[in-house]
């Protein structure tokens, strides 16, 4: 088990808990703990605590505003679970964070009004958001979308503009797999995102990577968060990475982005208040945000 490795509770159970390969005093951080099932609690969380591991449970047990859905495995997740016996059985010390430190005060107040303010029609909320964050009519450093069709369109424009601005001496072009079949330009500093079904060799789905170099057969990438480097074949990158110039709302959850951030698809029929909150809360600054449709 490599330090800093990311994995699901299911993989942690199969690969380490059941195999007895976790040592006492191992530090384990479990994010989105409100989504943990009773089975996961009994088979993973409590055994780790009994072993003597330092288990950090992070999440919103009050479920103040779920990012996307109200259910998990068929169970209603909108209730306050902070005093649930399942939680009490594992929690030794509790720290409740009530101050915003992840973004500027103006954006924090706006996001708080979305989460706790009076209920308003979605159209009213979106009109106010579009007025607050007017479009810049060009791709931002990070672009968040709801659907993959929009993602492909934004990436096409963003890659073309970035290529003109950077003017690399040489670059590699990879043809993406079906059904999107989007071309991927590769040169130093290009952002990528992993698209994988399972974690392999420390690489996992939605992992953000930055290209550091490439040659005739391989591409060297760096994890944007941990700094770890990986040497990958052209074919592996073609099949398992996409341009990170645009990411879906689902992929951006749990992350925060510096620099300019643009949101698209607010007119999509499936767009909701939760999508709006999740997308805008990925930014660190009010002035960095724009809504592009």
| Helix share, percent | 25-40%
Q: Radius of gyration over alpha carbons? A: 21 Å
Biggest beta sheet attributes: 5 strands, antiparallel
Query: In percent, how much strand structure appears in the residues?
Result: 15-25%
- Which stretches of 5+ consecutive residues score pLDDT under 50? none
Strand order of the largest sheet: 11-10-9-8-12
Number of helices: 9
Shape: globular
Q: From N to C, what is the helix and strand string?
A: HEHEEEHHHEHEEEEEEHEEHEHE
Global mean pLDDT: 86
How many angstroms does the end-to-end distance come to?
44 Å
Please identify the structural class as seen in this structure.
Answer: alpha/beta
How many beta-strand segments? 15
Your description of this structure?
This protein has 293 residues and is an alpha/beta fold. It has nine helices and 15 strands. The strands form five sheets. Strands 11-10-9-8-12 form a five-stranded antiparallel beta sheet. Strands 13-5-14-15 form a four-stranded parallel beta sheet. β6 and β7 form a beta hairpin. α1 packs across α2 (38-51). The chain is globular and about 55 Å long. The N and C termini lie far apart (44 Å).
